[in-house]
Design a protein that fits this description.
It is a single chain. The chain is globular. The chain is α+β, with helices and mostly antiparallel strands. A hairpin with a 3-residue loop joins strand 3 and strand 4. It has three helices and five strands; from the N terminus they run βααββββα. Helix content is about 35%, strand content about 25%. The relative contact order is 0.19. The N and C termini lie far apart (about 35 Å). It has a single domain, classed as RelE-like (YaeB-like fold, 2-Layer Sandwich), CATH 3.30.2310.20. It has a five-stranded mixed β-sheet with strand order 1-5-4-3-2.
């Protein structure tokens, strides 16, 4: 089964930023890993990725891809199986040990706007 990977506005902006900085040695490695992650998602080969489920919502969880290059990087995505779409909600360099609850609330809002899901989570 193959999927179509779609980028939210936020993740598209971050991807373009990575492309612009790809002339730097560390960033080219990161860009290649991000592109490889997108390929694995499209071909339903997530076993090749270091992934973690962020939410336990059975209908549509949010997943995290952990990329470790000289820079620790995260890709957050959710799957819309009925349309075979994978929405990359955000991509972000991990600079702190743990993302804030506010950050995850923002991911839920993105998921709602791109996938039409409503969660009633309280942090």
């Amino acid at each position: 089964m193959s999927y179509t990977v779609k980028l939210s506005n936020r993740s598209e902006k971050e991807y373009k930023n990575l492309e612009e900085k790809s002339h730097e040695n560390e960033n080219i490695k990161l860009l290649v890993k991000v592109m490889d992650s997108f390929d694995a998602l499209e071909s339903d080969e997530t076993f090749r990725l270091d992934t973690k489920i962020i939410t336990r919502e059975k209908k549509r969880p949010i997943y995290e891809i952990r990329i470790k290059t000289p820079v620790n990087y995260r890709i957050f995505y959710s799957i819309k199986k009925e349309t075979k779409e994978i929405w990359v909600l955000d991509m972000k360099e991990k600079k702190v040990p743990k993302f804030s609850a506010e950050y995850f609330k923002g991911l839920f809002r993105l998921q709602k706007s791109y996938l039409g899901i409503f969660y009633n989570y309280f942090f």
